[in-house]
Amino acid sequence: MVHLFVHARDFGCVDSIKNDHLSLLADRIIDRFTCEKKSTYYIPPSGRSVATGKLSHKLRNLRRKPANSQSKESISEESVDDPAERLRCAPKDPNVDLEAAINFLAFTRSPWTEVEEKWVSTHQYRLNQLKTEPYLDKYFASWPVLQSPSGCTLLEADFNSLWPGRNSVIFSKWPLFEEKLLKLAEKDVKDQTSKAILSLLKPNTSSDGRTAIAFSILPALCPPTRKIKLNNGKLWLPSIAEARSSMILHAQNANKVRLTLKENTDRLFKQGQRVQPLIIVVGPTLDKITKSYVCIDKTLWATSCVMKSIDVCFKAVFATESEYPGQSQHFWEAIQKSIYKMKTVHDKCQTPLDNIFKSHCE
User: Fold this and answer.
1) Using CA atoms, how far apart are residues 303 and 47, in angstroms rounded to an integer?
2) Sheet strand arrangement including 248-251
């Protein structure tokens, strides 16, 4: 849809697109994606009112913009799409033996290339499953292959299928932001615990240590202001520490990893909160990280570095159709919009962090 309009604009013929063309294009969209409605994309003019719908709005916006805005326009429109819903509505691939793929994934773990192939072939089926049963524990029980040491790569494959072109973007975008973030924190952080974390930073701190420190002090730069409604009906305003623990946990050694996770799960359970994907780092202090993991449900995946853990954790949220923890939603959304260039229909928060990320991640 976007590329058709953009090309028309660039060749100087955008004004030649009429309502009849939009109506025809809307018909083709709903033919391709059967769960969509034509009125979403095109509503003809009536009386004094002009035509409305996504196609009409897009056309009017493009007529107002110069041709040299093509690349930004394409990224912006791609990001407001709902790729998971599009895949659910897409025609089933007649060449996929779904039952055979499901049975294979239930019992087979090698060769891994074939596991990946079967996993991809079940993506549409699994997305529909997540829509009817949006619970991570049930999803992981249904697909035990995810509990394999390389299980996180399957979720990465799902994310890359839905949101292509973002496979390793964090490695080019995060370092510059991290540098600016740490400088900003030296001036603006007031929380005493966060100041203590920041004081661990030394010139010879490893890259993992720097990333763990920077990620951990994010809540201190923009403390939570949005209250969360608990199961008992009460409103809860998370503290900086609670926001931090919903993003990243720290265990001083490998023996304390499971205990740290259990304590966090028990605490959230008492508040009526679900446990969402999160990061756990291991080391005597945050500046001396020796291992990093991503945890979903009871599954723990080791990653190559803390930055990779952030990447996997973020992608897992979209691959499993989870939600960001309410305590740290504004941080994750800022990362989503600025580093991964994604804007979804589920976005809720707009905070000063958005501007911080945007100014340092372009």
Assistant:
1) 60
2) 248-251, 278-282, 291-296, 299-302
Question: From CA 100, how far away is CA 106, in angstroms rounded?
Answer: 10
**Strand 278-282 relative to strand 291-296, pairing:** antiparallel
Rounding to the nearest 10 degrees, give the CA dihedral for residues 105, 308, 130, 29.
-100
**Tokens 């990280």 label which residue?**
289
Identity of the amino acid at 117: E
* Other beta carbons less than 10 A from residue 98's beta carbon: 14
Angle at 353 between CA 229 and CA 77, to 5 degrees: 90
Task: Report which of 253, 252, 254, 299 is spatially closest to residue 278, judged by C-alpha positions.
Answer: 299
DSSP label of 105 = H
User: What does R_g of the chain's alpha carbons equal in angstroms?
Assistant: 23
Domain map (residue ranges) of the chain: 1-61, 96-162, 168-359
> Quick check: 25 and 41 in contact, CB under 8 A?
yes
- pLDDT (tens digit per residue) in 272-312: 777 789 999 999 999 999 999 999 988 999 999 999 999 99
Q: Of 163, 89, 88, which is closest to residue 123 (Cα–Cα)?
A: 88
